[in-house]
Design brief:
heterodimer; A: Peroxisomal Thiolase, Chain A, domain 1; OB fold (Dihydrolipoamide Acetyltransferase, E2P); 2 domains; 13 helices; B: alpha/beta; Peroxisomal Thiolase, Chain A, domain 1; five-stranded mixed β-sheet; four-stranded mixed β-sheet; 17% strand
């Protein structure tokens, strides 16, 4: 019986204070905060981080990988392939982008569940400055791992669909969304529901996970189900396709074995998934960690607008970076996407990146892969470069030693300029260095380990 | 030897600078009427010309010309290769020319065009990579931030003092220590005054066999040692390097001292021109070259040992700091100052009783660099 083996979220450390944003725009109000993907994150990098947080996945044994986002980094080129490479999955594992509509997330879940695979739902949701989408939006990614096994967190009891062709919200991928009238959307939904909701709840439910960009539609559903839906997690916001995943995690954190959870996604109708919480729940709950307040970093509203491309700012007189070239990126796909160093088969000297000739014994073409992505590093030295080109000055870089006996240099991310010291321990994170000529330059950076 | 002024030569192209430097050089010689009398050329330039036509075209010669590039040690390496060609007997009289037009580019600081890559190399600037030396040195030898700042300030101050006495330097005004210490950070502890000037310029040298030298000049300079070390890059890729030294310089200097028979550099070297691309570089070089014992150069700096009137003057012509750093020309400019000092033509900077000088020219960054050292002398013996 197919079940949910694991589910993990990635929420960026950066947040925007909504009162600070309102103040800048001369608006009233603004309460709480929303999560913000850093300038060097996108839906692909967040997806990689979410999948990395799944426990017990054997990259060589994943049957399929599905990616969904309304804000994909690439069209035409498969974003899931980058995630596939970062996790060192087998070439025989299919990887697909499920699409860029709000409903695509559920399509990805259905596909992954049907093929014992991983679905990762990742989004950056915002809108025009001062608008509701900017204020109520959020950035996050959630990874679901489906499969057979006795230790599933929950088993799948049913999928139910109600598909409607409805012009409610629309826009090109990554663009500002347009909408018709929320009352119209809710009304249209309500008039088409028939017994859909009542049937789902005929045997009761212990928790309801309801994701809907249209709050009036959500209210219609709630009224029909007669049960209150679980609240969204605080401080994040509506994170597009990932929203349903974040809410489900919230429900699972409070659930017990045997609970029935009804998940509903409103958008072009309603999609539903019914789960029965299973044996693996307590282990999952014990493993669960969330972002500590001490690790959160506030971004100014001006920087937030710059990161989102809405505010061009003066940069130092430095040339634009060169775009990554396809042949070297292909030759070095292990290093670039999965941080695979090379360990000499003869003398075990580790090279980061791999080299054709071993520094220890001179052997040629003797390198075996050893991934450094889960290794902790230590700062040998670092500096703050105020002159270098970077989307978010200044550039902070560090020379890092790994316990495995390798050394390499990386940009440091998620810190202010004066927060690093020699000897600090760092972890590796998957980020986007820059975008040049429409090509996204993905690679790893370091950041101090969470307190 | 010859050398143009180093400055922002908005009105001069690379061709113009080559012609000017070569003319300056030729006018210092006798017995050589024209460039056509030169047997072969080596041209050092990092990005201001490709192939030998960089000099054969503006000079209108048809001759062997090798283009040399070795990061910021380019100028020195052009001379090194030219010298070996004479020493091998292949040629009788050769010329090394270094030229750079950095100010035709709109960007701040040095730039380079790298081959296409996978995009994973951190694109840091030169100031950033050399700024790594300062905290490492401080930590290892127990300096607090204030003391390190004082040391670096003294180095910048000294080089500006010297440059103020040099009509060919880019910056010819002395700068106060307060101004230096207060300038905004470019990278790490380095402010504007800790970084060498970006300039255009050219320099040239004519090299012949030692026994023929006096045919061409009353005050030739004699080459006692030439050494170049291009490193493994292990500093950035192997655990162990601590950013307080340049192993490439240590090895390179050892070979040069052996060639020249120098056993006590601090006593035997009269003055030195070293690669002060950034102030902490000069600090570290004092120890790598054996002028100061490990961990003590900072004291020697503060005591004025390397000032113009000190024990062992370093960068009497103002160094990269105030003379400026047109990459291809700098190594030759260092030798030009040595040549002027030995000839008694260094004007207000003239040092007394000079016998042996050392030039050190560095390219790359801490952890992966190329080092050149030459030892030159006033006398043949």
């Amino acid at each position: 019986m197919t079940g949910l083996i694991d589910i993990a979220s990635y929420v960026p450390r950066t947040f925007l204070s909504l009162s600070a944003a309102a103040q800048t725009l001369g608006q009233r109000g603004g309460f709480g905060s929303r999560s913000v993907a850093s300038f060097d994150e996108d839906t692909t990098t967040m997806a990689v981080e979410a999948v990395r947080r799944l426990a017990r996945i054997d990259p060589h044994n994943v049957d399929s990988l599905w990616f969904a986002s309304t804000n994909p980094a690439y069209g035409i080129k498969t974003n899931a392939a980058a995630i596939h490479a970062a996790l060192r999955m087998e070439p025989s594992t299919p990887a697909f982008d499920a699409g860029s509509s709000l409903r695509s997330g559920f399509g990805a879940l259905r596909a992954a569940a049907g093929q014992s695979g991983i679905a990762v739902l990742s989004d950056m949701w915002s809108g025009l400055p001062g608008g509701e989408d900017e204020r109520c939006g959020g950035d996050a990614a959630v990874a679901f791992h489906f499969g057979d096994g006795p230790d599933a967190i929950a088993v799948i009891e049913a999928w139910e669909s109600l598909t409607m062709e409805l012009l409610e919200r629309w826009g090109a991928p990554g663009s500002d969304m347009q909408s018709w009238d929320d009352r119209f959307g809710a009304e249209a939904l309500g008039s088409n529901l028939a017994n859909f909701v009542e049937r789902l709840f005929s045997n009761g439910a212990d928790a309801v996970v309801l994701s809907s960009i249209n709050e009036r539609s959500a209210a219609v559903i709630s009224a029909r189900s007669g049960k209150a839906a679980i609240d969204a997690p605080l401080g994040i916001g509506f994170a597009g396709v990932a929203d349903v995943g974040l809410r489900l995690i919230g429900a699972l954190e409070k659930s017990s074995e045997g609970d029935k959870i009804v998940i509903l996604l409103v958008g072009d109708g309603v999609e539903s998934l019914v789960l029965r919480v299973s044996k693996g729940i307590s282990q999952w709950q014990a493993r669960r960690t969330s972002l500590k307040p001490a690790d959160k970093r506030e971004v100014s509203y001006a920087d937030f607008l710059s990161w989102r491309g809405r505010l061009s700012r003066q940069t130092p007189r430095r040339p634009e970076p060169q775009q990554p070239a396809a042949p070297p990126s292909f030759r070095n796909v292990g290093w670039k996407f999965a941080l695979c160093a090379g360990r000499c088969a003869n003398c075990e000297t580790v090279h980061a990146p791999p080299e054709p000739r071993c520094r220890g014994c001179g052997s040629v073409d003797s390198m075996d892969d050893v991934s450094l992505s889960d290794e902790k590093g230590s700062v040998v030295t670092f500096t703050v470069d105020n002159l270098a080109y970077t989307p978010a000055p200044p550039l902070i870089l560090a020379v890092i030693d790994f316990e495995i006996g390798a050394r390499a240099s990386f940009e440091v991310t998620d810190i202010e300029r004066d927060e690093l010291s020699i000897g600090d321990k760092v972890e590796m994170v998957f980020r986007k260095l820059n975008t040049v000529g429409g090509i996204h330059n993905y690679f790893w950076k370091v950041r101090p380990i969470a307190r | 030897m010859g050398c143009t002024q180093f400055k922002e030569h908005w009105g001069s192209s690379a061709d113009d600078l080559v012609v000017d430097a070569v003319q300056d050089c030729m006018s210092s010689l006798r017995g050589v009427a024209e460039v056509n009398d030169i047997d072969a050329f080596w041209v050092g330039t990092q990005g201001s010309g490709m192939a030998g036509v960089t000099v054969s075209r503006p000079l209108h010669v048809s001759a062997p010309v090798t283009r040399v590039e070795n990061y910021c040690a380019t100028g020195s390496d052009s001379l090194r290769n030219a010298a070996y060609a004479v020493a091998s007997g292949a040629y009788d009289i050769v010329m090394a020319v270094g030229v750079e037009k950095l100010k035709d580019s709109p960007f701040s600081g040095l730039t380079a065009t790298w081959p296409p890559s996978d995009g994973t190399k951190v694109d840091w600037t030169a100031p950033a990579s050399f700024s790594l030396l300062a905290p490492a040195y401080s930590k290892k030898f127990g300096l607090d931030d204030e003391t390190m700042r004082e040391v670096l300030t003294h180095i910048a101050w000294k080089n500006h003092q010297n440059g103020a006495l040099n009509p060919k330097a880019q910056f010819r005004k002395a700068v106060s220590k307060e101004t230096i210490a207060k300038s905004a950070s470019i990278a790490g502890i380095l402010g504007v005054f800790d970084c060498s000037g970006v300039a255009d310029g050219a320099a040239a040298a004519v090299i012949v066999r030692a026994e023929d030298a006096f045919k061409y000049s009353d005050h030739p300079m004699f080459i006692k040692a030439l050494s170049l070390t291009s490193g493994t890059g292990g500093g950035l890729r192997e655990v162990g390097y601590d950013f307080t030294t340049f192993p490439e310089v240590v090895q390179c200097a050892r070979e040069a001292y052996a060639q020249a028979g120098v056993t006590n550099p601090r006593e035997q070297i009269s003055f030195a021109e070293v690669h002060d691309c950034f102030t902490p570089t000069e600090l570290v070089l004092m120890e790598d070259l054996g002028f100061s014992a490990r961990g003590t150069a900072w004291q020697d700096v503060l005591n004025g040992a390397f000032d113009l009137c000190g024990d062992l003057p370093v960068n009497p012509d103002g160094g990269l700091k105030s003379f400026g750093h047109p990459i291809g020309a700098s190594g030759l400019r260092m030798l030009y100052e040595c040549w002027l000092q030995f000839a008694g033509k260094a004007g207000d900077r003239q040092l007394n009783e000079v016998k042996l000088a050392l030039t050190q020219n560095l390219g790359g960054q801490p952890g992966e660099c190329v080092s050149f050292v030459s030892i030159v002398g006033k006398d043949l013996g």
